[in-house]
What we know:
CATH 2.40.50.100; 4 domains; 6-stranded antiparallel barrel; 4-stranded antiparallel β-sheet
Amino acid sequence: MLELIFSALITILPDYLYRRYRQGKRLGQEITLFNVWYELRWGLTACAILAITLITVIFYYHPSTRNVSAAFRTVTVLSDRAGRVDEVYVVNNQALKAGDPIFRLDTTRQEAAAETARRRIAEINAALGLVATEIDGATARLSAAEADLRQAQDDLDRRRAVAERNSTVVSEQELERLETAVERAISQRAAAEAALDGAKLRQSSVLPAQRDSARAVLQEAENEIAKSTVFAEVDGVVKQFLLKPGDIVNPILRPAGILVPNVTGQGRYVAAFAQISASVIKPGMLVEITCASKPLTVIPMVVDEVQGAIAAGQFRPGDALLDQQDRARPGTVTVFLAPVFPAHLENVPQGSACAGVAYTSRAAEIEAGEITGFSAFIATLVDGMGIANAIVLRAQAILLPVKALVFS
């Protein structure tokens, strides 16, 4: 509307004044509703061309958008395993600090497993004390077997010596009996050595390995018990949290709630501009926004970052070829905005819907001499046209409560 009024003032008005005072044609007499197009054809045509040109230039170099929002991150309150809630420590909309407990799952089964592992460790420790006694007994039996072997060997050697001097004194049966006694003593010593080695092996390897396994089982059960309590990982406020003792929580099918982290200062705003503005929007551009949650207020922002990819072009590999015509929406240019004065964003809730206007400014290039002459004049003129969008934005800020409360 402003562009049309401005265009009419420098096209239709001069044409009418020429017709009125040069040709003597009066409005309502010679100039009527039926011949106004013919009489003012030059002014009307020039007005339409100029208005369209102005609107194109203004909206190209000073793009506007109705898709600005205060994006924020959420953290899903989940447990590491599924289970039944045993105790709840917080209520909905409660502020939490990092490390505060939120809820605890039932740990009856894990505590029973931990107690079983503790008893198994105690049993193995008792077995280690018993195996020391077994080693002492095996050592004593080995000593007795070695003594018996020496006694049998001495008897055999002595009877052989007697037999060598007088073969009639010692019979063959007696020698065979003594040799058998020696072999039996050797076998008994080997058995005693094997029993001693087995006891030592149980003491040094088998029982310690069993104790380590029991300790691992105990550690696993204690870890499951520790993970049964869900803690807040960051400072924030818990939302949509209606958990009660006895409810079933599943990390895949049923989360417990949402934790909204506290924002340090204020987070960046995300704006979506039309793709035709991609070559105009640059980091450092001034942007003004007005939000429905804080009406009658215009908040200055600055373009902090321009996303280099348009989300509508993404695809995920599948079993069918992608047809480009299936993309109904062309997508927008995602722009991240930072506040010029963070205090102006106070009392603006996270996730608020806002409208914004970006302003192109080439004053720095003109002052640096990069744009000179007629180009500098045109650039200054185009930059000044942003006042039209600034007026429109302020009109939106004023009319927003009326539209929302009266005409909605």
